[in-house]
User: Which sequence fits this backbone?
């Protein structure tokens, strides 16, 4: 049984309704929608094609609710199905946002292992999530793809990228606030030596970045700045076109000041050389309930225009509306 | 408040009672003893010294039970405390066994990071536990030591050992039964090439051993044997005195046939050159509820004497009794 077998009539599309339903529901509420789907249809949404997921989710959810709402559910679903006026960007953001955070990251991670442009997404998932959130991604990855996140990353990377990315996605960092000042001193020195010698993929440098807690790294990097006169990320800009150095800087930013990292992703995605909707969608769908308020502040202070205005200027239609709803949702 | 403040009289020791209480309780039951302790004293057992843990555990447990049993509890605890006739080996096995499995492994892991003879213990914990059990060890490690397991291993190892051990303890392996035959073929070939070239710490070899699921590794190693005429561990014996090769073989055995690995640990520990009680204790305390029945079978078929007999011949007193109770517990 599925909702597509219901009779229908040709209604006009109403993406605003989708936006209204989803953009203002939190992860737990969205998850209960998915649960209702599973109870109604006995299969997991992630086994479906991406857009079908969303349609059936809403369908299943509404069908599983009270009798009198059914007509409304069929109304909503079938007219979307029939008219297919949705754009690809709108589909993607709605569906990514509908997914459970761990499954969404597992989905983005799987996409990212397939090509080298995905390295930054792997770094985001490894460094800008909590240890337990990263762990949930790994569990979701097992369940969805019958493989481990680590083995796919290891299998699809090589050289310096493998040396950095595999330990980065594998580690289960300690999350306490403690930091050891003598360790900060000795490891700041190691980092500075390796960077001065341009040994950017040295195993000691990678050990420190991939295993130490965020609190310890903050102490070490602040010591680095104080002892050697410039922030580590400035020293890691020796060759601005070096993609590995760019990845290292991204990892450090995600670990220490994630809102600045995401501000830059948005700034470049909304820049003059054509909008990168893929990146804007990813940031909006993954950060809305995390640090979107701080990202917006960082954006405004760096670019002098509010993020909402930049988005409104570069996107349009339902995709724009959904983005604005998600960006705004952080304020609620 | 703690139990040591109770009045006492000098009774004779009765370790048999401890053995009777503990050796026949499963992990959940032992955990409830620890929980009772926490409720009674408001602090975690792991903050105490090792032996105090046990004494206070039993004390706290019994004190937290019915009034009429209190006299008995004090009787038991205080006479042990006073007489101190317990041997160090007996203390250690009782205490290791009393701990929750994840905390016990975290404790053993912390010990093991401190010197290179602990490398085999790290391999056991990384390879002879399920993915979720290893994860629980990492969580316990965070809670007990305010650091991550990965960072301590990375910090205390170097060279080839670091290259192998860090990814081994970091990985969260997929545990499904699926195996990919074409992957088994291609990765068996890679393993054979690297081993033929004596590149034992090659990153491809380490990637395969540290990231693939146990089911996939079994398929790959069986393909290795069929295609190249000898088991991988035979080819990894080129230099029998090479400690890194020995560690590689141990990892492979723990991942594929853990009972054979532990049979060998026991065989060597109970061998003629003086008993290694530390190793016997570790195997007894960690495997009793896991695969002790299979280890005993493997021991008997390899050594023609039952494991119980070998233990009785090499140990004595309460330590022997506790070992025999634990070894036997697997049969219940």
Assistant:
């Amino acid at each position: 049984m599925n909702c597509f077998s219901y009779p229908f009539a040709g209604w006009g599309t109403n993406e605003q309704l989708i936006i209204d339903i989803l953009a203002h529901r939190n992860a737990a509420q969205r998850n209960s929608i998915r649960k209702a789907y599973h109870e109604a249809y006995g299969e997991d949404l992630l086994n479906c094609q991406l857009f079908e997921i969303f349609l059936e989710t809403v369908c299943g959810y509404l069908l599983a609710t009270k009798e009198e709402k059914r007509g409304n559910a069929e109304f909503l679903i079938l007219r979307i199905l029939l008219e297919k006026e949705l754009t690809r960007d709108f589909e993607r953001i709605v569906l990514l946002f509908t997914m459970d955070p761990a499954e969404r990251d597992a989905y983005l991670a799987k996409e990212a292992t397939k090509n080298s442009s995905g390295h930054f997404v792997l770094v985001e998932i490894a460094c800008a999530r909590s240890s337990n959130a990263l762990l949930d991604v790994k569990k979701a990855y097992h369940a969805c793809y019958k493989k481990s996140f680590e083995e796919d990353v290891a299998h699809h990377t090589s050289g310096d990228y493998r040396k950095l990315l595999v330990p980065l996605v594998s580690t289960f960092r300690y999350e306490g606030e403690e930091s050891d000042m003598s360790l900060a001193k000795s490891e700041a020195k190691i980092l500075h030596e390796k960077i001065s010698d341009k040994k950017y993929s040295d195993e000691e440098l990678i050990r420190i970045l991939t295993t130490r807690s965020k609190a310890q790294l903050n102490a070490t990097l602040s010591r680095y700045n104080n002892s050697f006169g410039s922030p580590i990320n400035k020293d890691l800009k020796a060759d601005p076109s070096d993609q590995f150095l760019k990845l290292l800087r991204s990892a450090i930013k995600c670990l220490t000041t994630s809102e600045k990292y995401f501000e830059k992703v948005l700034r470049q995605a909304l820049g003059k050389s054509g909008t990168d909707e893929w990146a804007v969608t990813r940031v909006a769908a993954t950060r809305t309930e995390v640090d979107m308020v701080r990202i917006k502040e960082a954006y405004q202070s760096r670019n002098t225009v509010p993020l909402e205005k930049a988005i409104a200027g570069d996107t349009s239609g339902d995709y724009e509306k959904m983005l604005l709803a998600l960006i705004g949702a952080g304020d609620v």
Notes: The two ends of chain B are 38 Å apart (CA to CA). The CA atoms of residues 115 and 193 of chain B lie 32 Å apart.
